[in-house]
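step=encode ok
step=design start
structure_in=
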């Protein structure tokens, strides 16, 4: 084939691609307009009928979720960031519903209650979350370790500690009951937190931290995303500083109250973590620690925890060796009573001491010795 024929074929293929893209945007725009018409018709019927059927409620929720998805697809070809595309889709959809509600109320003299507007905003936000999921997923898995790294870490643990300790039945039962209750009670906090974060920086809701669990196995440690999207794309896995520019406004509050750790209730329910145990560390970091400090593997004889003795009795900036010393003590004296004590102390740190201006980062000794018989 000649160069002229080849370039002609490439040009023709490029034009076809452009037309397909443009056609897709036109179809999205037409569907969006049809959704607006259906919303107008449905709200008018609901107001005129005076009563509301279950199918009308379901249809209204579906339309409210579908509208921002259609708007987002229609805006995809415009020169705007994906974050602003999500925001525009959400605000446009809410504006359509609010405008329709006001017009219907003005023309008929009656309208739906404010509770319907709250439901519509919720369903619209759900549509934006679905759009986020289809475009880039609901969690951000940055700096995922390679298969070679995870296998190396696991093999080192097999060599150094063999099989991990069995999880006590009473501890596992406690974790299941408390994590199930915690997930149920914390749902409003989840919704409000992810909603504000999504509005501040639209994108994935969760952040996945690849950490080492019991026996040296890599697992996905879930957290609410508190930083800008792609915070580690350029740097790789790095610890956050006290005044990190990557942290979002709402993210700062979530981090200080430890509410960004709420998704780890899922890890606990799945048996990957416990409420109390050595705090999990990133797999890529653990690989380096094991080279210099092979005994570091001993902390992974048990399940990692949401709260740990090293964090309660020490501070955030402990060295790997210092963390190991605390974790060895925890493993030696582990019991349900000890776990309950550490949960209480972790709660005091998070919701009391951390907010005191003169706090030096360490708990008073009398609290650490509480229940230990003065030892």
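sequence_out=
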């Amino acid at each position: 084939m000649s160069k002229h024929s080849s370039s002609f074929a490439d040009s023709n293929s490029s034009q076809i691609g452009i037309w397909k893209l443009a056609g897709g945007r036109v179809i999205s725009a037409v569907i969006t307009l049809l959704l607006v018409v259906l919303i107008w018709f449905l709200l008018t019927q609901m107001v005129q009928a005076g009563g509301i059927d279950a199918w009308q409620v379901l249809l209204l929720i579906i339309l409210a979720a579908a509208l921002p998805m259609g708007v987002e697809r229609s805006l995809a070809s415009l020169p705007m960031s994906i974050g602003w595309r999500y925001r525009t889709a959400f605000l446009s959809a809410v504006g359509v519903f609010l405008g329709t509600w006001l017009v219907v109320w003005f023309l008929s003299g009656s309208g739906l209650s404010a509770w319907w507007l709250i439901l519509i905003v919720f369903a619209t936000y759900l549509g934006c979350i679905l759009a986020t999921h289809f475009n880039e997923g609901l969690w951000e898995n940055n700096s995922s370790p390679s298969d070679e790294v995870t296998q190396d870490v696991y093999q080192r643990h097999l060599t150094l500690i063999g099989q991990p300790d069995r999880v006590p039945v009473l501890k596992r039962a406690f974790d299941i009951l408390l994590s199930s209750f915690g997930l149920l009670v914390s749902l409003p906090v989840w919704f409000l937190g992810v909603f504000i974060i999504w509005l501040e920086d639209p994108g994935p809701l969760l952040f996945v931290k690849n950490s080492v669990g019991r026996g040296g196995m890599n697992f996905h440690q879930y957290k609410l995303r508190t930083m800008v999207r792609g915070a580690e794309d350029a740097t790789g896995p790095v610890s956050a500083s006290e005044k990190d520019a990557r942290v979002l406004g709402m993210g700062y509050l979530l981090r200080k109250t430890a509410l960004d750790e709420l998704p780890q209730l899922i890890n606990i329910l799945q048996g990957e973590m416990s409420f109390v145990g050595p705090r999990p560390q990133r797999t890529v970091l653990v690989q380096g620690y094991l080279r210099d400090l092979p005994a570091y593997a001993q902390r992974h004889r048990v399940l990692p925890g949401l709260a740990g003795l090293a964090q309660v009795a020490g501070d955030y900036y402990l060295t790997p060796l210092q963390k190991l010393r605390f974790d060895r003590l925890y493993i030696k004296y582990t019991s349900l009573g000890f776990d309950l004590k550490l949960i209480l102390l972790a709660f005091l740190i998070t919701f009391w001491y951390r907010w005191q201006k003169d706090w030096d980062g360490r708990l008073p000794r009398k609290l650490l010795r509480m229940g230990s018989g003065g030892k």
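step=design ok
step=annotate ok -> The chain has two domains: 3-136, 139-368.
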